[in-house]
Amino acid sequence: MYIIFYIIVFYFFISITEPATKRKRGPTKCLKTHGLSYEDRLPIRLNKYGQPIGCNRAKLSSHLGTLVRNAHLAPLTYTNWHGLKDNWKDLWEATIEKFDIGERAKGWVFKTLGSSWRTYKSRLKNQYFKENMPLVYNIKNCPRTVPLEHWKILVQFWSLDMIKVY
């Protein structure tokens, strides 16, 4: 009888202490960086290859990641990064507005932006696009951070037979 009591108490204790779902960290928002004025820009030191070094390099990389998730600066409607060339000037200006960074870093910045943009699109596809589901379902499964018009174009592109990888 005592054994049954302990088993019931044990299972009750486990059900109380274990959370239903594990909390996960969301994407960074870089609120402090986006809140900086032009006068308070963060200085970025560069090595001889034009790559950032020092204490603010991680903040710069995180900031670039937030820029590519902005639908106005880096729309998801393009099939590759080079299609966004018209927006590169705006992306560079958004970067130098918050960071005191030299022109020598421009190549590294755009390489990082392109990589982050492709990674973002890939994550969206893995999390929200179901290949075996109808087009209507995938369109309705639009993430709240992506404009519906951009999502429709993306889903239609991913649904093309020549795009699907078998």
From TrEMBL:
Query: What highest taxon heads this organism's lineage?
Result: Eukaryota
- What's the protein here called? Aminotransferase-like plant mobile domain-containing protein
Q: Which UniProt keywords apply?
A: Signal
Q: Which residues form the signal peptide?
A: 1-19
Q: Which organism is it from?
A: Arachis hypogaea
Classification lineage: Eukaryota, Viridiplantae, Streptophyta, Embryophyta, Tracheophyta
Record-linked PANTHER family: DUF4216 DOMAIN-CONTAINING PROTEIN, OS10G0409366 PROTEIN-RELATED
